[in-house]
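Lecture 7 notes: from sequence to structure.
We start with the chain below.
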Amino acid sequence: MNIQFFIEKLKGSEEFKKFKKENPKSYLTSCFITLDIEGKGKTNEYHLDFFVPIDEGSDKKFGDWWSFKLEDGVKLIPLNKAGVNEVDEKYIPDFVKHPPKLGGKSSLEFSEIETIIESEMRDKDFNNKIQKILMVLQEIDGKEIYTCTVFISGFGLLKVVIEDMLDGGGKINFFEKKSFFDMIRRK
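Predicted structure tokens for the same chain:
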């Protein structure tokens, strides 16, 4: 499976058609995927996040965030935090006010992402097993990037950034191993 499968599933749903009719300026801004490797997919999650810019003349400071949860049908979930429009604008980062559009062109299979990570682990002589992968797909500097947090055996974490080459395959741009205990020791 890849993100294209879920985009097509979403576009075919009545929930999404209704949402787009009510929010024609909305656009895809990120995808959040949880892959439960150890549990053989029992708790996989797939969320596609959309941003609705504010209309001119609105008294709101920021647009609205919505997520479509896709693991069991299609369910629309509001992501706005209570009171966000009452927060002083200087404390809100620009990417929250105007998030970049995600083209959603990635064709990387989720199993391919897992394989890329496993290959890098072997190259670095890590003997741990992948338990779960949390991935966020976003467009950064015109590139579709998967930012992954990988839970591995032995209370380890990997931070992995994979660029979708869009013409086939993915390239690791960042790879770092952390211990859960390293994070606890930091104060």
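Points to note: The chain has two domains: 3-33+45-97, 110-185. Strands lie at 27-36, 45-52, 64-69, 75-78, 130-140, 143-152, 156-164, 170-179.
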